[in-house]
Write a structure and sequence with these properties.
The structure is a homodimer of 356-residue chains. With 356 residues, the first copy, chain A, is an alpha/beta fold. Helix content of chain A is 39%, strand content 22%. The radius of gyration of chain A is 20 Å and the shape is globular. In chain A, 55% of the residues are buried. Bound molecules: 3-isopropylmalic acid (2 copies).
């Protein structure tokens, strides 16, 4: 098969990890007789520098005309107080909206050899395997009004958390579908004892659940969920929640397995190409030093093979290669134990290609 | 000194833990020559049952005419789908607003003998000592509009996250004051890369920090904060944040020390009496069985002695008594180790009185 992939290196270590990943994808293409064509475009801080726009229209066009999008990372202190007021994150929020990527999938699994470096006890996190499904194009991230306003004679600022029923329904359905293919349990997270938008969320889950009798569904308040994810993460299979709660919970969950540098994510919509990016940030402190751990980006590419290209076998092979490389004890600097030898980005990439 | 205390037992184990606490307070009064007069009032589910109102006006009046308020717990499955649509939590939200309790203090410290039961590694949580300061009468909990609405021909629901500058300033100042009395570090948590209300929050912190040169201040995004609190909780001294973020982060933090059943909280305003309640819920499953752990409520009363009555010595004595009882190995069912003997609520209360 021939597939066109838009590559958005972004900022910081983004370029290094996408380069590592295209090298690995080339190997996959060679092995399975595919052809991957890469188109590069700018996003985030580097796009502000070049185009004075964190999301130039060409970038959106390039993404739309491709089969899948790989994104490295965006952001960095350089743009924290940019004179134009433009922020790299606007590029990320903008591309999610432009491609209508309403579903953000963040699988949290740990490689057993790494759970040692978790701050949680080994027995709590060993074999954790949960999927956080976060709504990505609605809620308080995009609700209007979002503005400054004078209230009682002084300055005030406000944001609007709003959900339409159809927006809730499509992500919740995705949650049920996903739970069906996994262990059959869906936890819907909201704050229905306080928020009206959460009450509509909960009602919608209740209406849909009849269509999925094989899935066990529970509602959990977000404060309790933040507790439970630390207390006993293995109780969860799929967690589905809104944009803001998903942002917070998925970052908390990424701490569980001691593998933050290894966690992938997928953002998908109904039609447009999916966008695949590592959970970690742009790590400007190690930019350009050939030190970055490319495994999260490589695993994100495996998600692209699976979800966007339906290349299940290829995706599995790639996941296995990552796992085997770790089992063999290969480590980049972020996950190496004291006294052990750390591989560079390039060396780690070569190991994955070798094992493939 | 003579002090009037309003006691709001609320629901579930609320009555048992407030009874335990007034017994302990009587002992404190006897020892230090004070007089505590208790006035009882209804709130939450039990108030719905009796008055068809989770916060009867008499309750507000009683609270306002007293020097401090002790609250057991509110809520329970019995009222989850009450025909009237009334919810016990409305009582809690209502009393916070009526008394203008804008500052919620949740200290997180662990008794060393209990950190074993945390899901986090001992070295990560031993000697954790942080204070979460949550804004309690503003933000998305109280912003309007909060409503159902038709959008694009379908049902939608929305909430409004709004802060006036003065609301932010008063809680942030409290954070600085508190940090000054502790280890001199303040972490302000927001989501300024996405939310306008967070940007105003951050600006306000920046404006105020000049008045507190002795305090080191940092800004942290809420998603990162949820990670860091699990990864390395000892990096924090005082964390100050908005209502919703504080709800989530303080529940996550309550998991750290393995002492959820022991964590107190204080909600205070500028003038009205403060309200003191345990962090744990109403635990309807063990209601009326003389099994509840009263220590969180007792520690909350110690906070009342300290913050509302300025009885520092008495508060310290009470805190020490709780700590000594734990050091002596006394445990209620929630914290007992397998094979050990669990004390009843009454027995635990007697131990505290004895040690005092
Ligand atoms: C960078 C930021 C806008 C973004 C978000 O909040 O969605 C990030 O935290 C994420 O989770 O992808
Ligand atoms: C019961 C609920 C409304 C309340 C809140 O969200 O404030 C509780 O979770 C708390 O933290 O005190």
């Amino acid at each position: 098969m021939k597939k066109t992939i838009t590559v958005l290196p972004g900022d910081g270590i983004g370029l290094e990890v996408v380069n590592a990943t295209t090298a690995v994808l080339d190997k996959v293409a060679e092995m399975y007789g595919h052809e991957f064509e890469y188109k590069y475009a700018d996003i985030g801080g580097s796009a502000i520098d070049k185009h004075e726009n964190p999301l130039p229209p060409e970038t959106v066009d390039t993404c739309k005309s491709s089969d899948g999008v790989l994104l490295g990372a965006v952001g960095g202190p350089k743009w924290d107080n940019h004179p134009s007021g433009m922020r790299p994150e606007q590029g990320l929020l903008g591309i999610r909206k432009a491609l209508q990527l309403f579903a953000n999938l963040r699988p949290v699994t740990g490689h057993e050899s790494l759970t040692d470096s978790s701050s949680l006890k080994k027995e709590v996190v060993d074999n954790v395997d949960l999927m956080i499904l976060r709504e990505l194009t609605g809620g308080i991230y995009f609700g209007t009004p979002q503005e400054r306003r004078e209230v009682d004679g002084e300055e005030a600022a406000l944001d609007t958390m709003i959900y339409k029923k159809s927006e809730i329904a499509r992500i919740v359905r995705q949650g049920f579908e996903m739970a069906k293919l996994r262990r059959g349990k869906l936890t819907s997270v909201d704050k229905a004892n306080v928020l009206e938008s959460s009450r509509l969320w909960r009602e919608t889950v209740e209406e849909i659940k009849g269509d999925y009798p094989e899935v066990e569904v529970e509602h959990m308040l977000v404060d309790n969920a933040a507790m439970q994810i630390i207390r006993e993460p293995k109780q969860f299979d799929v967690m589905v929640t809104g944009n803001m709660f998903g942002d917070i919970l998925s970052d908390a969950a990424s701490m569980l397995t001691g593998s933050l540098g290894m966690l992938p994510s997928a953002s998908i919509g109904e039609q447009a190409p999916g966008l695949y990016e590592p959970v970690h940030g742009s790590a400007p402190d190690i930019e350009g030093q050939n030190k970055a751990n490319p495994l999260a980006m490589i695993s994100s590419a495996a998600m692209m093979l699976k979800y966007s290209f339906k290349m299940t076998e290829e995706a599995d092979a790639l996941d296995r290669a990552v796992s085997d490389v770790l089992s063999a004890g290969h480590r980049t600097g972020d996950i190496v134990k004291e006294g052990e030898n750390a591989l560079s980005t390039d060396e780690m990439t070569d190991k994955v290609i070798e094992v493939l």
